[in-house]
From TrEMBL:
<dbReference type="GO" id="GO:0046983">
    <property type="term" value="F:protein dimerization activity"/>
</dbReference>
<dbReference type="InterPro" id="IPR016461">
    <property type="entry name" value="COMT-like"/>
</dbReference>
<dbReference type="GO" id="GO:0008757">
    <property type="term" value="F:S-adenosylmethionine-dependent methyltransferase activity"/>
</dbReference>
<dbReference type="Pfam" id="PF00891">
    <property type="entry name" value="Methyltransf_2"/>
</dbReference>
<dbReference type="GO" id="GO:0032259">
    <property type="term" value="P:methylation"/>
</dbReference>
<keyword id="KW-0808">Transferase</keyword>
<dbReference type="InterPro" id="IPR029063">
    <property type="entry name" value="SAM-dependent_MTases_sf"/>
</dbReference>
<protein>
    <submittedName>
        <fullName>Uncharacterized protein</fullName>
    </submittedName>
</protein>
<feature type="active site" description="Proton acceptor">
    <location>
        <position position="279"/>
    </location>
</feature>
<dbReference type="InterPro" id="IPR012967">
    <property type="entry name" value="COMT_dimerisation"/>
</dbReference>
<dbReference type="Pfam" id="PF08100">
    <property type="entry name" value="Dimerisation"/>
</dbReference>
<feature type="domain" description="O-methyltransferase dimerisation">
    <location>
        <begin position="20"/>
        <end position="112"/>
    </location>
</feature>
<dbReference type="InterPro" id="IPR036390">
    <property type="entry name" value="WH_DNA-bd_sf"/>
</dbReference>
<feature type="domain" description="O-methyltransferase C-terminal">
    <location>
        <begin position="145"/>
        <end position="356"/>
    </location>
</feature>
<dbReference type="InterPro" id="IPR001077">
    <property type="entry name" value="COMT_C"/>
</dbReference>
<keyword id="KW-0949">S-adenosyl-L-methionine</keyword>
<dbReference type="InterPro" id="IPR036388">
    <property type="entry name" value="WH-like_DNA-bd_sf"/>
</dbReference>
Length: 374
C-alpha cells in the first residue's frame, strides 16, 4: 500500500515514533523486573546508595562480562526515573570506574531488608510493585534475560536471551518455523522497507546519486533494492543473501540476486547498502562485515562508500520519547545478541574496520543514514 500523500515525511515519522514507543513500553517493566531479579537496588543500598556499575555487579554477583549489557538495562530505568546517574560519560564508558549510579526515592522503595521479621516484611512497599510485575516477570523475555545475565560468558560465547527463552531457537530459526502463524518476521521486515524506502529516496536520494552499482547486503527478497532500481534505472542493483532466501526471490524487478555469506565476501560495487543489518551483530562481527564491505568498493575518490541505515542512539537528545524509543528498542536487540549504538560506538567499529570518515544524516525518525567512506 502506498503511503498517504497528504502526510509529510515528518508527520509519518512522528506517527511511527508514537506507535513504536507505545509498543516498546512493554520493555520498561521488563527492565525493572530484570534488575529486581538481579537485586540491583539491594546491591546499591549495601554500597551506601551510590556506586559504579562494576562495584554494583560485584556486590550482586554478576559477571563483569555483562557490564555493557547491564548498562543498557540501567539506561532505560534512568530515563524512567527509577535510578539516577551522577556522571554521564560523553564517550563509551570503559570497564573501569565510569559514572556513579544512585538510588532515587522510587528505587529506595524496592530495597529489601533481610533483618526484618516476616511480619514486618509484609509491610514493605516493595511487594505491590512485585505483584504488578508478575506478568512481565513470567514472560519468556524476562526469563531469558534473567538467565542470560547469570551466565558467566561474554556475549558471543553463549546462547542469546531469545534462544534461552525459546528452547535454544535463534530468532531466525523461529522466524522460519512460525512464519505463517505467530511470528511473521519476514513480513514485518518487508513492511518496514515498504514504509521507509520511498521516504529515503524522496528526502535523501542524493546519497545514491552518481552510483553505477550497489549491493544490498542481506537484502531479503529485494524490496529496498527494487525501490532504488526504480528510482535509478541505470544502476545495477544486486542483493546478497542466503540460499533459501534467494530461492524465493522475484525475477521481474530488475534486481540481481547472489547467494553468499557476509562474513566471507561481498560482490564488488560502487556502494554497499546495509539497511538495519549491523545492529543484529556484536562489535567484532560488525568489524568483520565492514572489512568485507571495504574490500568490495573502490576508493572514496572513485565514488566508493557504504550506506548504512540504523539507529544512532542519542541522535535527538532533547526529545525524550525519541531517546526512550531507541533505548527500549535496544532491549529487543539485547535479546538477539545485537546492539543499538550511539555515535561513539559506531565510530569505534568504523575505525577498527579501516574506514577513515563518516557522515550521519538524521532525517529518518529514530533511525539515521550513515555514509561511511574508505
Amino acid at each position: 500500500m502506498a503511503l498517504p500523500a497528504e502526510y509529510s515525511s515528518e508527520e509519518l515519522f512522528k506517527a511511527q515514533l508514537q506507535l513504536w514507543h507505545q509498543a516498546l513500553c512493554f520493555f520498561k517493566p521488563v527492565a525493572l523486573s530484570v534488575v529486581l531479579d538481579l537485586r540491583i537496588p539491594d546491591a546499591i543500598h549495601r554500597l551506601g546508595g551510590a556506586a559504579t556499575l562494576p562495584q554494583i555487579m560485584a556486590e550482586a554477583g554478576i559477571n563483569l562480562c555483562k557490564l555493557r549489557d547491564l548498562r543498557r538495562i540501567m539506561r532505560v530505568l534512568i530515563l524512567s526515573g527509577i535510578f539516577s546517574v551522577k556522571q554521564v560519560a560523553t564517550t563509551v564508558a570503559s570497564d573501569g570506574e565510569g559514572p556513579i549510579y544512585k538510588l532515587t526515592t522510587a528505587s529506595s522503595l524496592l530495597v529489601s531488608d533481610e533483618s526484618l521479621t516476616s511480619q514486618q516484611q509484609l509491610l514493605r512497599p516493595f511487594l505491590y510493585p512485585q505483584l504488578m510485575l508478575t506478568p512481565c516477570r513470567e514472560c519468556p523475555v524476562s526469563r531469558g534475560l534473567h538467565a542470560w545475565f547469570r551466565q558467566d560468558q561474554p556475549q558471543p560465547a553463549g546462547l542469546s536471551p531469545f534462544a534461552l527463552a525459546y528452547s535454544g531457537l535463534t530468532i531466525w530459526e523461529r522466524a522460519e518455523r512460525d512464519a505463517t502463524t505467530t511470528f511473521p518476521f519476514d513480513d514485518a521486515m518487508a513492511s518496514d522497507t515498504a514504509f521507509l524506502m520511498p521516504i529515503v529516496l524522496k528526502d535523501c536520494g542524493e546519497v545514491f546519486h552518481g552510483l553505477t552499482s550497489l549491493v544490498d547486503v542481506a537484502g531479503g527478497l529485494g524490496g529496498a533494492a527494487a525501490t532504488i532500481k526504480a528510482a535509478f534505472p541505470d544502476m545495477k542493483c544486486t542483493v546478497l543473501d542466503r540460499p533459501e532466501v534467494v530461492a524465493k526471490a522475484p525475477t521481474d524487478n530488475g534486481v540481481q540476486y547472489v547467494v553468499g555469506d557476509i562474513f566471507q565476501s561481498i560482490p564488488p560495487a560502487n556502494a554497499v547498502f546495509l539497511k538495519w543489518i549491523l545492529h543484529d551483530w556484536n562489535d567484532d562481527e560488525c568489524v568483520k562485515i565492514l572489512k568485507n564491505c571495504k574490500k568490495a568498493i573502490p576508493p572514496r575518490d572513485a565514488g566508493g562508500k557504504i550506506i548504512i541505515i540504523d539507529m544512532v542512539v542519542g541522535s535527538e537528545p532533547s526529545d525524550i520519547k525519541h531517546l526512550e524509543t531507541q533505548v527500549l528498542h535496544d532491549i529487543i536487540m539485547m535479546n538477539l545478541n545485537g546492539i543499538e549504538r550511539d555515535e561513539q560506538e559506531w565510530k569505534k567499529i568504523f575505525f577498527e574496520a579501516g574506514f577513515k570518515d563518516y557522515k550521519i544524516i538524521q532525517l529518518l525518525g529514530v533511525r539515521s543514514i550513515i555514509e561511511l567512506y574508505p
